[in-house]
Design goal:
Transferase(Phosphotransferase), domain 1; four-stranded antiparallel beta sheet; 4 domains; six-stranded antiparallel beta sheet; flat; alpha+beta; Phosphorylase Kinase, domain 1
């Protein structure tokens, strides 16, 4: 690419306009634009292994150090994940000139944002502007599966693509933390799809993703963004009952403690309700602003669901109670969730719940919930289950007391044996002391035998430390005036997901090599001690010194960042304090030997 083309592309990225087809970013060539997103633009691209997708971060975002750091960290985390059918895999990232970009596998399909826009445009003829119950159920099920073990933080309708076969994929996992940082920096407006505590702390979380998925569930059903006082799904979506209203209310509760504990649990409940008819047979309900919370559901409703008649708490002692219990144990319908703190477990059959109570896995304070109706109750206050919880607690307490008595007796025996051992060691110690006194009287110097060990931590160890040399700078190319180009770099030089510490330092402030030597040469004894302890004998060390802090931030030993020698030397080097600079960093390489 010519210098003129590079300059034009760099200016385009900085001004926020689209990059032209043919523009080169590292090993990737722009083919065509895809979508404008909140903090980046997506492009079709050609890479070294075929078609790919590029996310080019907006210049105003990448120029903010906090946002840039969050994007880089998110890229590394996303690239390290195993492949998942509902996650677009991140494969590379780079900094070409001042253009920050991320490469993923090829993305095919339509954004959920686009699908909703099309539905809204045709809603005057077709009625409801949402995607429909089954489509929404499939969508939420796929998204929750993708985010079961990872956190996005800023999930929205532009974060998800659906292809022609109906496959649902989250596309912008690497950008989630960057979106939050941009909102906190005032470069993006606040968005109702992001949990309040995530905006406040800046840290993505599982509970925050549950909140975002709840807003997505509402938007895909109703066709409009979730707002307090807005219509409930059961009011505007034909065939949906108040169960979905309750699920949205719980998922989007402002208190994270009162939401579903995990994304996959929410996905299973929503999928069951929308895909298997659990949310059918609508009844009129009030607006979200006045809707009752799940905690307001009467406990007697839950009791009725599992066949418990009466609330005296004496059911297990009566013939009726025996029949109810037998019926419950025979019921294999897995419809019960158990909430323990922030986490939800299940679904279980009632027989499974009773078995867990017997083992002490379900205790007073845990909440049992019917995932079909949304009814919730503390297991200890339930008419049938409450007495079982109490009996299990008493039995387990008795077992613990018996085990404690056995443990006390065992400790007393061990103390007696330990006392005799100490006395025996004392006698041996006295004998050894007498031996050394006799040897000293004879003129022998026993310290000569352990001299090698005694000097490990001292500076008397014969250590050779060479003068440092700056590692060769990579050939990044320049244009007139000495500025860095916005186009091609040497192959492999822009892989930020693998090592952000090896970028070129051209134009940055650096320390003189003699100054660097004066600092680390004072640590020769400790560095040599590491070699002696690990049996290495010699090592080649490469370091990077951060200018403003004067601390070592990157260490390689013999080209590696692993092993006993690296671990020991890394600890010594990161404890050194070099002179500080206002900016930039210093890279140096040196050899040590004993």
């Amino acid at each position: 690419m010519t210098a003129a083309g590079t300059t034009s592309g760099s200016h385009a990225a900085q001004s926020g306009s689209r990059l032209a087809p043919g523009f080169q970013l590292g090993e990737y060539r722009i083919v065509a634009p895809l979508w404008p997103l909140r903090i980046a633009d997506a492009y079709k691209a050609e890479g070294p292994k075929g078609p790919a997708t590029l996310f080019v971060v907006h210049a105003v975002m990448s120029s903010n150090a906090t946002i840039r750091d969050q994007i880089v960290a998110g890229t590394r985390a996303a690239a390290a994940l195993p492949e998942h059918k509902h996650l677009v895999h991140t494969i590379a990232a780079g900094l070409t000139g001042e253009i920050l970009w991320i490469a993923t596998e090829e993305i095919e399909g339509s954004l959920v944002r686009e699908l909703l826009q099309k539905k809204r445009m045709g809603s005057n003829r077709a009625g409801n502007a949402g995607l429909g119950m089954r489509a929404t159920g499939n969508l939420v099920t796929g998204v929750t599966a993708a985010l079961t073990d990872v956190h996005h933080g800023a999930l929205a309708d532009e974060s998800i693509v659906v292809n022609r076969s109906g496959r649902v994929r989250v596309i912008d996992l690497a950008l989630g933390a960057g979106v939050i940082a941009a909102m906190r920096a005032g470069l993006l407006p606040a968005q109702a799809t992001i949990a309040p505590e995530v905006v406040k702390s800046g840290v993505p979380s599982g509970a925050g993703d549950v909140y975002s998925i709840g807003t997505l569930l509402y938007e895909c059903l109703v066709g409009t963004s979730l707002e307090r006082g807005g219509p409930r799904p059961s009011e505007v979506v034909p065939g949906v009952n108040s169960q979905i209203d309750e699920l949205v209310a719980r998922a989007c509760h402002r208190d994270p403690e009162k939401r579903f504990g995990r994304c996959d649990v929410l996905g299973e409940v929503v999928g069951e309700a929308l895909n298997k008819g659990g949310a059918m047979m609508t009844t009129a309900v009030p607006t979200l602003a006045s809707a009752p919370s799940l905690a307001d559901v009467q406990q007697v409703s839950l009791a009725a669901e599992i066949g418990a008649a009466g609330a005296s708490g004496q059911m297990a002692a009566s013939g009726s109670g025996d029949r109810v219990l037998a019926s419950a144990l025979a019921d294999s319908n897995e419809k019960w969730l158990i909430s323990k703190g922030k986490l939800d477990y299940g679904p279980f059959s009632l027989a499974d719940v009773i078995a867990q109570i017997e083992k002490g896995d379900i205790v007073a304070g845990n909440i049992i919930m019917d995932k079909d109706s949304g009814a919730r109750v503390d297991v200890s206050t339930h008419p049938m289950l409450g007495p079982m919880v109490d009996q299990a607690r008493q039995r387990i307490d008795m077992q613990r007391r018996a085990q404690a008595e056995v443990a006390v007796q065992s400790r007393e025996k061990k103390r007696g044996a330990l006392l005799y051992s100490v006395i025996g060691l004392g006698v041996v110690g006295v004998a050894i002391g007498v031996y050394f006194v006799v040897q000293a009287a004879r003129g022998d110097d026993p310290t000569k035998k352990v001299a090698g060990v005694s000097t490990l931590d001292g500076a008397s160890l014969n250590v050779k430390v060479t003068m440092p040399k700056a590692p060769p700078k990579r050939n990044t190319g320049t244009r007139p005036g000495g500025t860095r180009p916005g186009g091609n770099y040497a192959k492999g030089s822009e892989d930020l997901s693998l090592d952000m510490s090896d970028e070129d330092d051209g134009g940055s402030s650096t320390l003189d090599m003699g100054t660097v030597y004066n600092v680390y040469s004072h640590y020769g004894g400790q560095l040599g001690g590491c070699l002696q302890r690990t049996g290495a004998g010699q090592a080649n060390i490469g370091i990077i010194i951060d200018g403003p802090s004067g601390r070592v931030t990157f260490v390689k030993v013999d080209g590696k960042q692993a092993g006993a020698t690296w671990s020991c030397l890394n600890g010594v080097l990161r404890g050194m304090k070099f002179p500080t600079l206002k900016s930039g960093r210093t890279r140096a390489e040196f050899d040590i030997g004993i």
